Amino acid sequence: MEKRRRFLASAGSLAVTGGLFGPVAAATPSRAVVSVPGPGNLLYLPLPLASRIGADLAEGLELDIRFTGGGPQAIRAMLERNSDFAAAGLSALALQKLNGKPVVCIAPMTRVPAYTLLVRAGLRGKVRQMADLQGLVVGVKGHVPGGRSTSQLFAEYLLARAGLRPDQVNYVSAGQSYDSQHAALVSGAVDALVGDEPFVTRLVRQKVAFALADFHDPETTRKQMGGLFLNGMIGTREDMVAGKPALVEKLVRTIKRTLVWVDTHSADEMVEALNPGQPEERRALRDVLRLRKNIYSPDGRISDEQLRTVDRFLRATEPAIAAQGLSVRSLVDARWAGSAP
Questions:
Q1: For residues 148 and 91, is the Cβ–Cβ distance under 8 A?
Q2: Closest CA relative to residue 96, chosen from 69, 82, 76
Q3: pLDDT of residue 250 exceeding 70
Q4: How many Å apart are CA 49 and CA 149, to the nearest integer?
Q5: Which has the closest alpha carbon to 115: 152, 165, 65, 159?
Q6: DSSP class per residue in 76-145
Q7: Distance between CA atoms of 84 and 78, rounded to whole angstroms?
């Protein structure tokens, strides 16, 4: 802890000095364990960044980040009380709610899906549109009983728009890391996958795969999905909200502080703060953030527009949502994050 304080002090961190949200919190922070898909996933980058810029310390919090193989695994770790909070896709959280799990969304991180559908290079010329994936293998994040990953739901959504049923392609887990996704494509274990940045940029540059559909741009998302879309978010259990509201508030304020920092700092400053180890990884992250920094919520408020889009998305991919009358709004607690139109 003291070593990190010295690092942040020498870096002149705006988050720690309290320039964004007020004075620095007390010296003894609370601890929050967060299960996070990764490492290295752009969707959930605000969490490791929060530690690097001292946003957690500024709110009297010390983040303990535990990386998992995907959003469903992160939610399971939280439900099994191996963590206090989980980073995941809101749609994956909704499926857990549908299955009776006591889950709550407390803060957003992104405002678009931030997924790219990649196809392995050997299929160039054979796969030109979504319908051409019929009978092929699509890689998604791992799933757990009672819930599919948001990446699988997203693949199903795109395929349904192309006239395919979910059972007309085969889904397998392609993992959460660059190495696992690279291996799945190179080996031919998958024909396509729902990919994450900055891994997508590296895979395309290496000519391992090509992009068939991309949902990082806010305007493209509005055009294709009818509105902005809340994907990356922070969830917790209902008993955490009821029993430890101060800890929940500290985490939400940490996320909001970090998102404001992202909105007011450059891609280069973000990479410098994160300091990835490998030159290729560093270069890809810098290039992606220069183009894609607007995937993040600028203020950490929960947007009604995004919730409406997720409702439509879920009704298109999971019939039980409509049958049970589940509204995404019912699993959101915006008292700390605040709401936006």
A1: no
A2: 76
A3: yes
A4: 24
A5: 152
A6: HHHHTTS-SEEEEEHHHHHHHHHTT--EEEEEE-BSS--EEEEEEGGGTTT--SGGGGTTSEEEE---BT
A7: 6
In DSSP notation, 296-328 reads B-SS-PEEHHHHHHHHHHHHHH-HHHHHHT--G
Tokens of 329: 């709004």
Taking only the tens place, the pLDDT of each residue in 34-87 is 999 988 899 999 999 999 999 999 999 999 999 998 888 999 999 999 999 999
**170-173/137-140 β-pairing:** parallel
Residue 239 in 3-state DSSP?
A: helix
pTM of the entire structure? Answer: 0.88
**Count of other CB atoms within 10 angstroms of residue 183:** 15
> What is residue 22's predicted lDDT score, i.e. its pLDDT?
55
Calpha distance 136→48 (Å, rounded): 35
pLDDT digits (tens, 9 = 90+) for 265-315: 999 999 999 998 888 889 999 999 999 999 999 999 999 999 999 999 999
**Which amino acid does the sequence have at 73?**
Q
Which structural domains are found in the chain, ordered by start? 2-112+229-340 (3.40.190.10), 115-215 (3.40.190.10)
Q: Does pLDDT of 132 surpass 60?
A: yes
Task: Report the length, in residues, of the chain.
Answer: 341
